[in-house]
């Protein structure tokens, strides 16, 4: 049995994902969809999440590591957000057809890092999607696009994504900003390094506070002495906490 299967969910070269399968499965296994970060830019690829996908499959779940159209590779907000929705929908249609392991499509979990976390939590709020996740995990998530843009933080990357400045079209930024779209109705775990200099931890603090205020189950795990890219290093607490939050029982009762 192949442990990795490449599946196209669209016709564009960037519309594909790698499905990593566990070697031993007694019954249907949960599916974890991984969305990589990297400023929504073609300079970064799904290989950022490959190590986590492999590790998750070793621990008994199917990992769906998705690529998507990004700025410089056919993307912009309309294309990027559409791809993420389509990739999630593929869990119920394309993946079961090509998986040698039975999949539990009623237990789909989403993990995103940085810009990928913005996409993950935004996707959790798309209530019309045919597949609804059972939990979403944000790793150092860029969850407040509107405030960052209005403060001119991350401006070039966001303007490239949306094709317009915040000053000219603030509503577009708010519509894509997870903080401004609560509640999602999906239980959420935010993990953030206290020393993150690229996406300050306040983004996750503000999101969890707002989500709870609007009735969502949400929790923040703060990781001391670690920064933005610690999630890519298997020796860190951020890495171990991600596995715990994705695979563990009821992480919302275990604030850190």
UniProtKB/TrEMBL annotation:
<dbReference type="Pfam" id="PF20434">
    <property type="entry name" value="BD-FAE"/>
</dbReference>
<dbReference type="InterPro" id="IPR029058">
    <property type="entry name" value="AB_hydrolase_fold"/>
</dbReference>
<feature type="domain" description="BD-FAE-like">
    <location>
        <begin position="19"/>
        <end position="207"/>
    </location>
</feature>
<dbReference type="GO" id="GO:0016787">
    <property type="term" value="F:hydrolase activity"/>
</dbReference>
<dbReference type="InterPro" id="IPR050300">
    <property type="entry name" value="GDXG_lipolytic_enzyme"/>
</dbReference>
<dbReference type="InterPro" id="IPR049492">
    <property type="entry name" value="BD-FAE-like_dom"/>
</dbReference>
<protein>
    <submittedName>
        <fullName>Lipase</fullName>
    </submittedName>
</protein>
<keyword id="KW-0378">Hydrolase</keyword>
């Amino acid at each position: 049995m192949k442990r990795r299967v490449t599946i196209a969910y669209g016709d564009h070269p960037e519309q594909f994902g790698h499905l990593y399968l566990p070697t031993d499965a007694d019954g249907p296994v949960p599916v974890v969809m991984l969305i990589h970060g990297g400023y929504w830019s073609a300079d970064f690829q799904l290989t950022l999440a490959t190590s986590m996908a492999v590790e998750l499959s070793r621990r008994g779940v199917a990992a769906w590591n998705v690529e998507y159209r990004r700025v410089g590779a056919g993307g912009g907000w309309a294309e990027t957000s559409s791809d993420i929705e389509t990739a999630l929908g593929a869990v119920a249609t394309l993946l079961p057809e090509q998986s040698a392991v039975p999949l539990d499509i009623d237990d789909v979990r989403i993990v995103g890092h940085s810009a990928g976390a913005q996409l993950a939590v935004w996707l959790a709020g798309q209530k019309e999607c045919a597949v609804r996740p059972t939990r979403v995990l944000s790793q150092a998530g860029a969850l407040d696009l509107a405030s960052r843009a209005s403060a001119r933080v991350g401006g070039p990357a966001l303007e490239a994504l949306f094709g317009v400045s915040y000053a000219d079209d603030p509503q577009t930024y708010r519509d894509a900003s997870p903080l401004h779209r609560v509640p999602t109705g999906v239980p959420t775990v935010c993990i953030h390094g206290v020393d993150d200099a690229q996406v300050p931890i306040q983004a996750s603090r503000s999101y969890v506070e707002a989500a709870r205020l609007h009735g969502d189950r949400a929790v923040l795990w703060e990781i001391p002495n670690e920064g933005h890219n610690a999630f890519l290093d298997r020796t860190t607490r951020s890495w171990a906490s991600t596995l715990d939050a994705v695979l563990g029982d009821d992480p919302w009762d275990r604030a850190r």
